What we know:
By secondary structure, this protein is an alpha+beta fold. The chain has 18 helices and 14 strands. The protein has 3 domains: 6-271, Butyryl-CoA Dehydrogenase, subunit A, domain 2 (Beta Barrel), CATH 2.40.110.10; 277-460, Butyryl-CoA Dehydrogenase, subunit A, domain 3, CATH 1.20.140.10; 463-500, no CATH class. The model has no long low-confidence stretch (mean pLDDT 95). Residues 275-467 form the HpaB/PvcC/4-BUDH C-terminal domain. Keywords: FAD, Flavoprotein, Isomerase, Oxidoreductase.
Amino acid sequence: MKLMTGNEYVESLREYNPDIQVKGKKVTSVADEPLFKPGINAIAVTYELAHQKKHQDIMLATLADGTRVNRLNALDYSADDLLKKLEMTRLICKWTGCGQRYLMHDALSALAEITAMMDAEKKTDYHAVFNDYLTHVQRFDLTCGTAVTDAKGDRSKRPHEQADRDLYVRVTEKNEKGIIVSGAKANITGAPYVHEFIVLPTRAMKKEDVDYAVSFAVPVDAPGLKMIAKPAGRPGDSEAPFSSNFGQSTALVIFNNVFIPWDKVFLCGEWEYTGKLAEAFANHHRHSCIGARAGLGDMIIGASALMSEYNGLPPVEVPHIRRNMGELIRITEGFYATGVAASVYGRKTVAGNVVPDSVQSNIGKLMLAEQVYDIFRIAHEISGGIVVTAPTPEDISVEESGELIERYLVGKHGTTANERINMARLLEDLTASKEGGFYSVISLHGGGSPEAMRMSAVRNYDLESQKVHILEKLKCFAKVEGTCKDCVTCVNDEPCEETCD
Length: 501
Ligand SMILES: Cc1cc2nc3c(=O)[nH]c(=O)nc-3n(C[C@H](O)[C@H](O)[C@H](O)COP(=O)(O)OP(=O)(O)OC[C@H]3O[C@@H](n4cnc5c(N)ncnc54)[C@H](O)[C@@H]3O)c2cc1C
């Protein structure tokens, strides 16, 4: 099994020749495209961390035969694995803002379960195809983009009801060698600089949508596959200390009669399993998002504390700053704790891998989706207006204005204006810039809209047992009125006739 370094990953991109357009121009070399550099850097970190001894316990997973692979390319077999995956996404995102590659872990985990389920129930052979694919990504230490969200068109209509039949990815032809697919997937993270895509259905399909019930893997440069991509982060922006180095591209990925051989097809026509597959992916992915956004929270907590110090207000001593720091920590550790709970209460699947508890992972993702806006607001309150008004590096580099800036924008005695301005710029980059807006929207919608999480949480929550409990209790209360006092504090599940009468 290979464990690439960051540089080897960048070089490996030269072996692919994908059809990509960014800002109206065709990309000739992904590895050398400056507009993708922050995104490539972020994924390179996922390779580099796996080589650092102090991080290998969480960055590497050990397979049954004893070989070690990047945990992002491995399945989870225990609560401990889920906890390590959570810590891994937090670590990666604390470095990069968004490490992007964890989507593939979540897609592989979902496919492991649902292909095994289909084989058991429908006598298909998808699980062996999946296992071969898993070995393939592990052997070459690949990064796969995960393409779930279709273009979708009119949201009130199902796939087969759309005016344009290709608004969801569909199978247009099947032959003995494989299938041909057309359609589009939107908002796909990291698409330009991954090796392959794993394609999953975005929703539960009905019988009429059978052509849209499809899941497969495909190299990024397959004939007929085109991407219209956005730059990653804020490349080349002198006011972006973080996102000129680390960022995330997304792309509209279009399939125009793309051939997929059968040995890369994980589901084709089994429409009854599409909802299960979409939900399994969402469950793993929302769990990963919890770790990812905790990493972003860590960065904002550190930067806010330093900003307050540079302002001359020690964050632990000044009461309202301390309260606000406490809020930042409460939010970040609060949603992270649901990720821990989801790991501890996970369940084993028919494939033998473990999935996080779906109520906890959905609730955690919902919490971070909504509370990321509070994190940004509190960081702004702690830091002051300089977050958006700090002079540009170009003005600082002019001698006369540089001196004025150093004189008038200084904060705490013993620190320089430059230190204060650098911290303000970092906070602007993470919370109040175009990139800051990106982090809000990815937190809100990445992994599904908040409503999707509420629906999943309610669907998977054991409402029935809560209702039964209340009805049983009411029966007890009715019986004991004025008679048996013990019954009120009784903890038997069933109403206890003997005691009450
Ligand atoms: C930065 C970023 C990165 C992403 N990366 C990936 C990725 O790598 N892979 C991937 O597959 N996806 C990715 N996504 C997509 C993400 O999963 C979707 O954005 C999310 O599922 C919401 O879908 P949508 O954007 O199409 O919004 P919509 O579905 O259009 O949602 C907009 C609103 O409409 C509501 N709505 C939608 N449909 C209905 C309906 N039928 N009835 C009632 N209300 C409805 C929603 O609840 C929401 O309030 C990414 C998104 C972002 C923002």
